[in-house]
Amino acid sequence: MNSLFIVFHVILLASSVHLTNAASYEYFKLALVWPTTFTRIHASGMTKPKIPQHFTIHGLWPTNFSLPWPANCANNQPKYHFDKSLMTATLQGHLAPDWPSLLPGQSNMDFWTAQWEKHGSCSAERFAQSEYFEKALFHRHNLDIDGELKKVGIIPDRIKTYSRSAIVNAIKKTKTLQVEPELVCFPDNGNALLWEIRVCFDADLVEIIQCPINKSKGVNLCKTKSNSIIIPV
Ligand code: 5GP
After folding, report:
1. Signal sequence span per UniProt (predicted)?
2. In ligand 1, which atom is closest to the CA atom of 25?
């Protein structure tokens, strides 16, 4: 009885150590950004030769159900720092159209480095660098958010507005998803510009899961008056 009790406590202690470890996480969030909105917010006045007209990847974030979220995990485990030599020409070629830097002054490589350092390093025990980037691309393609929205007539436009529920339902009823994504907006003259669509996955990056309600301060979850969301061109 006593030894069972000790074993039980050792297991409990081990799991709590794991949970408080900076590199532990509970699920993933794939953040897809609408480039025109991003450019208006972060790079107004600056013009990229061609702003992508499809959702691109902002990041793939290992996350916890409650705060704090893990970040910059290579600070404690230097072996997980970004390794540029792993970014083969093939991988870069695949990433460039779907995970580009949208900031005119920032190269794609700098953007990938920053995302890996802040986020990817925190799931490096499970997903090594190349696999992390490939998984993000795989899911971005598999979801085909652009195609699903188009199917129900939700098309980027300068002034046309859509309701949050129309966008959410378009995504929710797809075969791949069937759960509610997280929408992020930016206020604009009484309307809201759709900024990001975020989809959540289990810790193994296999199953899509319902994103928990985002309780972080300052994030605008597009819960504005109905029919007020613009997906700008
Ligand atoms: P925002 O607060 O504007 O949604 O996000 C700001 C930054 O916080 C993002 O660029 C991202 O790095 C981080 N972030 C936002 N939401 C999450 C989340 O759910 N999990 C993690 N790990 N980071 C997040």
Report:
1. 1-22
2. 22
**Beta-bridge mates of residue 193:** 186, 230
- How far, CA to CA in Å, does 60 sit from each of 44, 95, 132? 25, 13, 8
Q: Between β-strands 161-162 and 56-63, what pairing exists: parallel, antiparallel or unpaired?
A: unpaired
Q: For residue 219, report the distance from its CA to the centre of ligand 1, in Å.
A: 9
Three-class secondary structure of residue 178 per DSSP? coil
CATH number at residue 192: 3.90.730.10
- What pTM, to 2 d.p., does this model score? 0.89
What separation in angstroms does the CA of 84 have from each of 43, 76, 138, 144? 26, 19, 21, 28
Total domains, the chain: 1
Ligand 1 pocket test, pick from 29, 58, 99, 213 with the greatest ligand atom count within 8 Å of Cβ, gives 29
Could you read off the pLDDT of 110-167 as tens digits, one per residue? Answer: 999 999 999 999 999 999 999 999 999 999 999 999 999 999 999 999 999 999 999 9
Asked if residue 9 is part of any domain, the answer here is no
Domain that holds residue 116: 27-230
C-beta of 69 in contact with ligand 1 (< 6 A): yes
Q: How far is the CA of 29 from the centre of ligand 1 (A)?
A: 9
Q: Whose CA is nearest to atom 14 of ligand 1?
A: 61
Cβ–ligand 1 distance for 61 under 6 Å, the answer yes
